[in-house]
């Protein structure tokens, strides 16, 4: 299809929309108030609007290879912050898809160049779920499961962001969902990812992690508030002698 054909299609679409709803474009020009944020794969077979039955103005969209939520990705973080704090979206959908080339590439024992650094985030998902992953003998089934596990981990990654943690202190935090799209059937499957986000990992990823760490420290026998609390925050004043006597981490959970 040439660019001329694309422009012609566009004019046809405008005429069609105006015929059914003369005020359609004026309304959209006034601003947007989408209820959903879609985080999906860039794959051309997974168009956000078409598979969800949403039209212009209804869904804020971020897409990248393999629908990743990477904490150093300022593009994704900017989209997320704007969607949550300004647009006030009610639901965030992380949408993976079976047959994802990015996921397959991450699982293959090959090097692809720059993209390997992006795929490493999916390899981390394999590491976290290695036993389950290795137990699946069928190659196709194993990849399908990896697509699902990747979506589950990306929903957790969303929950780890301070953007979602702060939103959860408000009266209307967005709900997080993990979905997988089946290209062969055209159907979306809800993975029913637990919406408690980071759950039992709150003490690590929570924005109040240091407060928890202090509580753990205070529960240690022989706790000395003056000497021990300073070590929790930073350790610039340590002398060589102190370092020698340092017998290990101070944040271990009291048994
Ligand atoms: Zn994909």
TrEMBL record:
Catalyzed reactions: hydrogencarbonate + H(+) = CO2 + H2O
Ranges of Basic and acidic residues composition bias in the record: 226-249
Annotated EC: 4.2.1.1
One Pfam family named in its UniProt record: Pro_CA
Enzyme class: lyase
Record's keyword annotation contains Repeat: no
Keywords: Lyase, Metal-binding, Zinc
Entries under SMART domains matching the protein: Pro_CA (SM00947)
Domain of life from the UniProt record: Bacteria
Protein's UniProt keywords contain Metal-binding: yes
Names of required cofactors: Zn(2+)
Region span, Disordered: 215-255
Function: Reversible hydration of carbon dioxide.
UniProt-recorded name of the protein: Carbonic anhydrase
Organism: Hymenobacter yonginensis
Phylogenetic placement of the source organism: Bacteria, Pseudomonadati, Bacteroidota, Cytophagia, Cytophagales
């Amino acid at each position: 299809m040439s660019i001329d054909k694309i422009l012609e299609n566009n004019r046809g679409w405008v005429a069609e929309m105006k015929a059914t709803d003369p005020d359609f474009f004026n309304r959209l020009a006034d601003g947007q108030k989408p209820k959903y944020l879609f985080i999906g794969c860039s794959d051309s077979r997974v168009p956000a609007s078409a598979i969800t039955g949403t039209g212009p103005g209804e869904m804020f969209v971020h897409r990248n290879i393999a629908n990743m939520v990477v904490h150093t990705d300022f593009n994704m973080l900017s989209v997320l912050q704007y969607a949550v704090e300004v647009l006030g979206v009610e639901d965030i959908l992380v949408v993976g898809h079976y047959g994802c080339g990015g996921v397959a590439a991450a699982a293959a024992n090959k090097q692809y160049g720059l993209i390997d650094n992006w795929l490493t985030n999916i390899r981390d998902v394999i590491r976290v779920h290695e036993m389950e992953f290795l137990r699946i003998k069928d190659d196709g089934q194993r990849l399908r499961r990896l697509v699902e596990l990747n979506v589950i981990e990306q929903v957790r990654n969303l929950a780890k962001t301070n953007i979602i943690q702060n939103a959860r202190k408000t009266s209307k935090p967005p709900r997080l969902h993990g979905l997988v799209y089946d290209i062969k059937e055209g159907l979306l499957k809800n993975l029913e990812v637990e919406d408690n986000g980071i759950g039992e990992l709150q003490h690590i990823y929570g924005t109040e992690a240091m407060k928890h760490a202090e509580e753990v420290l205070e529960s240690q026998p022989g706790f000395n508030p003056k000497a021990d609390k300073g070590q929790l925050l930073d350790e610039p004043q340590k002398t060589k002698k102190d370092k020698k006597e340092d017998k290990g981490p101070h944040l271990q959970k009291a048994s």
